[in-house]
Design goal:
The chain is built from no helices and eleven strands.
């Protein structure tokens, strides 16, 4: 079992930056690729970005490239999502997820564990 707890969400204004954190506990964090997803009201949960278990490889949703950055600290068992130039359409519940393996897939159904989610609201 892997327990994931997100933090760092909140209400910000358009153009602001925000960093989400995800604390992992349980199994060896460095054995898991990690991903970030988000879900807006009335929409499906969508891929934001992912990072390989060693941290060398990241991938992002095309629409978010250049604004969002995923990173991890395996020594601290922490995952991060740096979000810059936030827009109202970034408003959503953000989730971190873990997948046993090397690379983080885009498909949410391939992940093994999920956090409870944290709200990010961007006002215009």
């Amino acid at each position: 079992q892997v327990q994931l707890v997100e933090s760092g969400g909140g209400l910000v204004q358009a153009g602001d930056s925000l960093r989400l954190s995800c604390a992992a506990s349980g199994r060896t964090f460095s054995s898991y690729a990690m991903g970030w997803f988000r879900q807006a009201p009335g929409k499906e949960r969508e891929f934001v970005g992912s990072i390989s278990r060693g941290g060398a490889t990241t991938r992002y949703a095309d629409s978010l490239k250049g604004r969002f950055t995923v990173s991890r600290d395996n020594a601290k068992a922490m995952l991060y999502l740096q979000m810059n130039s936030l827009k109202p359409e970034d408003t959503a519940l953000y989730y971190c997820a873990a997948k046993l393996g090397i690379f983080g897939p885009v498909d949410k159904n391939e992940y093994d564990y999920w956090g409870q989610g944290i709200q990010v609201t961007v006002s215009s």
